[in-house]
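lol ok so funny story. i was supposed to be doing the assay writeup but got distracted and ended up predicting the structure for this chain instead. priorities right. anyway since i did it might as well share w the group, maybe its usefull for someone
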Amino acid sequence: MDEPITERTPLVIAAEINKIKQETSKFMLTSAMEIGKRLKEAKDLLPHGEWGKWLVESVSYSQRTANKLMQLFKEYGDNLFAEVGRSNSPVLANLTYYQALLLLGIPEDEREKFIMEHPAFTTKYEERCTACCQTIADTFQELLVALGQLARLDLAVKEKCSKDASQLAEYMVERLKEWPPVPRTNMRTVETYATHERW
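and the output, tada:
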């Protein structure tokens, strides 16, 4: 029998893209850990003082990048994947490469708890943006209600609060011009290939 052909709709295409993104993300983390494992093996075999030269000549990695890859393997290799693609921890199973790098700054025994307490690791970016927009709108509405109630209070207090509210509104308008914001972190564990690798 002929298999039915699925109609190509934007919804079907989006589902396919999201599946590929998820698989790519998982493959990237697994590959990084496999590279880290092999880098550690090579480092242990090389004579003292040859490591940096070998990295540049053989695999075109900086020592910093190599150290991060080896650290990923050390921290997650045995614990995260018993076999490729099978996690010992359902919470850690869906980590991306960049999330795994960020979590290196948190003690191993606290990582799962951290992920559970911080929905940024478990929700989609669009959901986080929507929630953030809603929070901003709700806060602004509460501010307007509070200002309305201040109308009955001291005129000087009302004027100062009104000025502060205007400044806040201007700030919010400026921030929303750059929406969604570029993710920023103060953690130094995140590196990009383009930043640290030179061709």
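The chain is about 65% helix and 5% strand. Residues 189-199 have pLDDT under 50 and may be disordered.
back to the writeup now i swear
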